Every structure is written in structure tokens, then in C-alpha cells.
Amino acid sequence: DCSGSMRGFPLEKARATMGQCLDALRPGDAFNLMSFAGGVGMCFPEPVLASPATVEKARDFLNGLEGGGGTEMM
């Protein structure tokens, strides 16, 4: 959730938590990241296998999120 209510501290804590999840991925684990705030964003078009490159791309995706908009989970 990167809606307006997540701006600042809540989003930073969510990023830290997701960073720990990324750190725990093992080779062979499949993952994807999804964001929502009035719409949905995906890091990858479909789940990918954990590798240094995919985890780094996921970190870039997380770091690019900003709190804004509303929460709509349709």
C-alpha cells in the first residue's frame, strides 16, 4: 500500500520489512512485488526467480514508491 496514508514513516517501515523479505529469498524462490494506491503497479510482469539482478530491481522498485493517492483494491 503506497496510498497517501502511507506517506512518511509507514511507508519507510513497509520498505524496511520488504527489504528483509528480499534478503531472505533463496535461489529458486519465485517472487514479485505489487503496489497499490488508486491503481496497481507491478515490479515484474510475472513472478521471477530470485537472483542478485531481480532482487536489485525489486529494491529499486521499492525505493521508487511514494505515498500518495487513495486506497482502491478492486
Task: Describe this structure in a few short sentences.
By secondary structure, this protein is an alpha+beta fold.
Question: If you had to describe this structure to a student in words, what would you say it looks like?
Answer:
By secondary structure, the protein is of the alpha+beta class. 38% of the residues lie in helices and 14% in strands. It has two helices and four strands. The strands form two sheets. The protein has a two-stranded antiparallel sheet. The mean pLDDT is 84.
Q: How many helical stretches?
A: 2
The count of DSSP E runs of length 2 or more, i.e. the number of strands, is: 4
Considering DSSP H and I runs of 4 or more, what fraction of the residues is helical? 25-40%
Q: How many whole angstroms does the radius of gyration measure?
A: 12 Å
Q: Which residues form runs of ≥5 with pLDDT under 50?
A: none
User: In whole angstroms, how far apart are the ends?
Assistant: 13 Å
The oligomeric state of the chains shown is: single chain
Question: What class would the helix/strand composition place it in?
Answer: alpha+beta
Mean pLDDT: 84
Q: Give the strand order of the largest sheet, numbering strands 1, 2, ... along the chain.
A: 1-4
Order of helices and strands: HEEEEH
Q: Tell me the overall shape.
A: globular
Question: How is the biggest beta sheet arranged?
Answer: 2 strands, antiparallel
Proportion of residues in β-strands: 5-15%
